[in-house]
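Action item from last week, closing it out:
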Amino acid sequence: MKFRRALIFVLVIALFATFLMPAGVFAESSDRAAKVHVVRRGDTLAKISLRYGVSVTALSRANNVRNPNLIYVGQRLVIPTKNSPASSTSNSKPAAASSSGSVHVVRRGDTLAKISQRYGVSLTALRNTNNIRNVNRIYVGQRLQIPGKVKASNSSQTSKTIAPQYASGKKWIEVDLSSQRLIAHQGDSVVLRTKVSTGLRNTPTPVGRYAVRVKVRRQTMTGPGYSLPNVQWVMYFYRDYAIHGTYWHNRFGRPMSHGCVNVRNTQAKFLYNWAGHGTPVIVHR
């Protein structure tokens, strides 16, 4: 009987000791299992990943964040540990190529179109691989998986052009101001790649995402200091900016225009017949 009373007394003392134990002990053991970061004003997923030494991808997966740009003040983010399968060390160097491709870390000035050209993959494939809905929303430090076993190449090397009759999928037109090139995409294929002349420094071609809205077979174009009759195969994509045929110069590959995209008449004719109203036009540097 005395032994039983003594055992009960010991259990009661142990129970009280548990309640009186400092909360920091539990917090410390919990932090060892998984750290939690409470989002503050000015935080971004990239900043948080750098602070804790994990990749943005691992942080997104650990918290089921589909859009890295959509986090909010007060949100509690679990920081994956080094032992977690979703975690990986974050640094400024791109990860080594994997069986599914390589990884590109977005830098200042990068666009999705430039990255796709650099690695010789289509923009559609790059978007699908990284679940990107808006091609204009990528951020510095973002790690993009490059589809396929490819090696980084010069930006002048791009995917092979195929005949339009063999292409399928959504059509869109890309205008690269830096290289003075126009690329017509259909699905994962390129159906046309040609040199163009875009706006001069004082009359630049606007950068952004637009669409073919008006098509004019031929017209006279006039403006300050010029009057050009019989301009053919005209496709307006933004206000009075258009992609159109050009006969008055042959200096394609350098800026020459008042803001429009000058194309050789043969290529302009193809684009006019190939692209319908609403075809996206993406202009980037």
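Closing note: The longest helix spans residues 2-20.
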